[in-house]
Amino acid sequence: MSGLVRDKEARFVWDLEKGAAVLDPAAVRLVPDTSSGLIDTKLHLEAAFRATPTTTRCPLTLGRAAIDDLTFQHLPVERALAQDRVRLLIADDVGLGKTLEAGLITSELACRGRADRILVVTTRAMLTQFQKEFWTRFSIPLSRLDSAAIRRMRNRIPAHYNVFDQFARSIVSIDTLKRDTQIRDALKHSYWDLIIIDEAHNAAERKSAAGSNSQRAELAQLLSRRTDSLLLLTATPHDGSQESFASLIRMLDPTRVPDPSRLHRSDIEDLVVRRFRSSPEVVADIGRAVPKRELFPRNFPLSPQEEGAYQAIADLHLDLDEEQTRGRAIDLFRTTIAKSIFSSPVACRETLERRIRGIENGTARGTDADRERLRSLADMVAAIDTGAFSKYQELLRLLRELRWTGRAPRDRLVIFSERIATVSWLAERLREDLELSPDQVARVDGGSVEADVRTQEVIEAFGQERSPIRILIASDMASEGLNLHFQCHRLIHFDLPWSLLRFQQRNGRIDRYGQDRPPQISYFVGESTHPKVRQMWVLEKLVAKDEAAQAGVGDPAVFLGAGDAEGEEAVVAEAVASGIGAEAFERQMDERAAEATCHMSVDDEFAALFGDYAAPAPAAAATSTDQGPPRLYRDTFTYARAMIERLSRPEENAFPEVPRIHETDRLIQLAIPGDMRARDGFGYASEGAVDGRFMPEEAVGPGDRIELTDQPAVINQAISDAKAQERAWPTVQYLWDGHPILEWFADRASTFFPEHAAPVASLAGRLLPGEVAVILHGAIPNANGAPVVDRWAVVIRSPDGTIRIEEVGTFLTRTRLSEDTPSRPLEDLSAANAAIPIAVDRFQTHLVELRKARVAEIQRDLDAVLERLAALETRFRAQLTLDLGDVPAGDAGMSPVEKRRLTIRRKREQEIKKLFHDWAEWFDRTRKMVADPNPHVDVKAVFVG
Predict the structure, then answer these.
(1) Each residue's pLDDT tens digit, 793-823
(2) Helix, strand or coil for residue 782?
(3) Residue 324 DSSP symbol
(4) How far is residue 931 CA from its own chain's centroid?
(5) Nearest-CA neighbor of 737 among 639, 863, 869?
(6) Is 583 exposed, middle or buried (CB count within 10 Å of its CB: 0-12, 13-18, 19+)?
(7) Residue 425 — very low, low, confident or very high, per pLDDT cuts 50/70/90?
(8) Are 820 and 930 in contact (CB under 8 A)?
(9) What gap in Å lies between CA 73 and CA 513, rounded to an integer?
(10) How far apart are CA 625 and CA 640, in angstroms?
């Protein structure tokens, strides 16, 4: 079947469909099961049980995924399940596992049929890592739409076709969405069950946002309206302003933000989870598991050539800076020069030469006098050759002291610099001075058009033990989210960032959960003989504040009063430009922290920004009375073994070769079946590769074979072993309730019996003579067709004709159906056939009774939601009056300004009305049940005594 229509939902006009009829569940045809041990019936039932979405709010995946079970990671899951519409900002500290928390929530939603369509949006550098984490830990396949995949598909997908219709679960970079008009347009015509925006601070509104940042914010706002559930992941949820934080909250639930400049913690508490490394619950879980990091400052004297250049920069006055109207030090070109020289002479010279050329050709501000001053400074900087570049010489001295040779595969270095020119220069010099081969030194700076593909390749290789890479030199594009700790425990800040947040983000690449050696972090501090130059050195004080944050301050943003790197850089730039000196700068940071501590206890708005969010989920969610679907087999491995043994019969022709099952090791080895191979023809997958719906192509081992196990310890070892092999993806896959092969099992099980038929079998000796048991499934849906009530039950007709309903679990236990069950011939089906209409009617009545019992509960919850929305709408309208005044009695005699204000007010009133109508309508549509007097039910199996 063509990829244009396969697995797609279609709607038909009933009146035009000749011969269409509603199936009568009581008219099901009974087919005696003659299989040995009733294996076909058992597998048919188990597949149906597992394909049924549960409606319980109790967590089902905690302690079961292929990750370490950390108690503090339970909270986001519990919060999400307590919400009717899952909308959550996970803002935990760097390295605490936000991706894993998102994976747990996604798995929970998938169990409930609420994550069939998933879109993950992340940075270019994170595409492969995020995709691999979701697959190896949670068996959630994501199609990676990087630039290479999009290029392959560009000429093969019809122009009118939406690429996101082809991929139910996909991952794409925010930059691809931003620059690819066809992909971006497809967003507007797509809808998802769940969207995850990783590193969401890149999509938040910022005070300094312009160009690409504001475009990212617009895209994120669009995405927030194209999904039911939304997860935002970031360690830095704001830039220190209420407006920035409010922009993320508005994506989650715009009704919570009447005034973006005044967020109230009580309004948003249920939407945010935020813990720091110093939070007690985090320390209790990982305090001893993460080796304590070691910081090594490297002080060095400036060379005479550097002293001259630094002194000239400290004394530099430029006409173009005098013309600067914004009044911020960060906007002064002298500050830009200082940042560049702090990085390297080559970066500084590049900055100076670019400005000089701009002045000469009229494309940049600056006078002729500025040009001459900059030319003179450029000559001084050019005199700083490699021998006079004292920081670089100190780097070489550090490596000699470490006796670092580059030969040990697990002794790798990450070197950070914020300037691409410095990254490039370091790569060339270190190869030559350390006598390393070209493939031993890699760089990640995002400078090329195909940077997403190249970056993923380099990051993957750096984590592989057999990779030749020994030094990774990175710009700050690699400072967010990436795991660089697998073969590396040494990180060097070649230049310290002008942001405490950026310093923490860089360190978090190796100082994170899963690091097995103490992280060693080195940084450089220059020493000058000139007082004015010494007063510019303040960056090492950021390191001291990072240590304080690690020791228990909590949010490190309190020291600089900003929550993003750009805002912090502006604060640091003021200190550098004014030359206040390190001690005064440290006092300023301490004063801000003390003021923050005072504010936190009395100021709700301040606590909304800088406090943690760790309140437990509502108790009602944890005590949900709904139960998960029943199980016939004791675990997923036992079910998979039975199904594979059944499908391995020659007549099934399911596998190209007989699978191997290792019971003792709980391992299944099989070759990819033919009907699990891709047939899209759009160029995404390789010819004959596995269909991405079932697993990523990279997850398939040599010979198109895979291995399945339900042992998390085996998965963790396989992930670790893969890093010591040539392939980065383990071939062993985690077999649990979320693995897509269970969908394939369900498809295969559906062929065991004809369509609109159900198996019937004898349980003589386990049921009373003449007793008939009918296993049924039914659901009461909402207006969207999603189940609100989902019910499995057994309707028992006793020999005396009485009817009762029994829980499936109870029935399975008392009939010992999970044990060996003899297959007995069943010739007389009259009793079974007679029982079916009675059982269907009784079960439908039972469902209606359940619906009526749930109506009051649902209405009570819905009333509470509508009451909250009404109160918020009142606040929105009150804020509108504060902003734009009261509505005048008439518009006669109004000035043009007043008319313009009235027009704006009326437009805003309509927007508020539509906003609250849409949210109220969503809750009404998804919570209320369809009042069908004869709800649809399915007869799944019949047993007679």
Answers:
(1) 999 999 999 999 999 999 999 999 999 999 9
(2) strand
(3) -
(4) 37
(5) 639
(6) exposed
(7) very high
(8) no
(9) 13
(10) 29
